[in-house]
Design a protein that fits this description.
InterPro entries: AAA+_ATPase, ABC_transp_ATP-bind, ABC_transporter-like_ATP-bd, ABC_transporter-like_CS, P-loop_NTPase. With about 250 residues, the protein is of the alpha/beta class. The chain has 9 helices and 10 strands. It has one domain: P-loop containing nucleotide triphosphate hydrolases (Rossmann fold), CATH 3.40.50. Strand 4 and strand 5 form a beta hairpin. Helix 4 crosses helix 5. The two termini are about 35 Å apart.
């Protein structure tokens, strides 16, 4: 199966200020020569300890941050160097869902404004907003309410609807269910799986919860101090890990 999203030798470093004004230097990289493939219609799970570089990798894969070295390719096009017209086409095809369902939504906007924000004004804009809400199990009468009126699980559904509104091919989820209770997690995860089957979506799903990764992932990459130390089919990585970091994560001793 051909990859839809690829990272090739991606390196990204911290920038620290020197003692002298306006002078900066790079310290040890946050990410070091990361290479991975996301196949169309599948889920790549990324696991690692806190501080291993998972969130930074999400932002680079989404195109929000450019790598210092290496490439991120969507359908073979480099996110950083492709012509402007191609980047404009790619931008709505890759969407993110963030960890915090409370902080990710502007409390001053209605749900209608939040979900519809990525869309240009168009005659069918409102219909697409309501359709996106319906797809995540929210009713039309919720569109004119504000985020404070919703639970954490409902807010994350709003965030998912916002990600869906551009009809993306790839969704990158950075700890998207970690702030939810277990029963709500299950509802949101099943919703994501249903949408993947319905639309052929490809996911990059970051989580520290191995049960979540096991439930969703076709392939897994293990990140440790900015490097991928193990990767492969989910069943192999989880059932027969070869790296000490992976074994420690599975034993919950990392």
């Amino acid at each position: 199966m051909s990859p839809i999203l690829q990272a090739r030798a991606v390196t990204y470093g911290r920038t620290d200020r020197r003692a002298f004004p306006f002078m900066r230097r790079k310290s040890s990289p946050i990410l070091k020569e990361i290479s991975l493939d996301l196949s169309a219609g599948q889920t790549l799970g990324i696991i690692g300890a806190s501080g291993s570089g998972k969130s930074t990798l999400c932002r680079i894969l989404s195109g929000l941050v450019a790598p210092d070295e290496g490439q991120v390719l969507y359908q073979g096009q480099d996110l950083a160097t492709a012509p402007a017209q191609i980047r404009k086409r790619i931008r709505p095809a890759i969407q993110m869902i963030f960890q915090d369902p409370y902080g990710a939504l502007d409390p001053r906007q209605t749900v209608r404004d939040i979900v519809g924000e990525p869309l240009d004004p168009a005659p069918n804009r409102d219909a697409r907003i309501l359709a996106a809400l319906a797809e995540v199990g929210l009713s039309a009468d919720m569109a004119d309410r504000y985020p404070r009126a919703f639970s954490g699980g409902q807010r994350q559904r709003i965030a998912i609807a916002r990600a869906l509104i551009t009809r993306p091919s790839v969704i990158i989820a950075d700890e998207a269910v970690s702030a939810l209770d277990v029963s709500t997690q299950a509802i949101v995860l099943n919703l994501l799986l249903d949408m993947q089957k319905r639309h052929g979506l490809s996911y990059v799903f970051v989580s520290h919860d191995l049960a979540v990764i096991r439930h969703l992932s076709h392939h897994i990459a293990v990140l440790d101090r900015g490097r991928i130390v193990e990767s492969g089919p989910a069943s192999e990585v989880l059932n027969a890990p070869t790296h000490a970091v992976t074994r420690a994560l599975l034993e919950n001793t990392y």
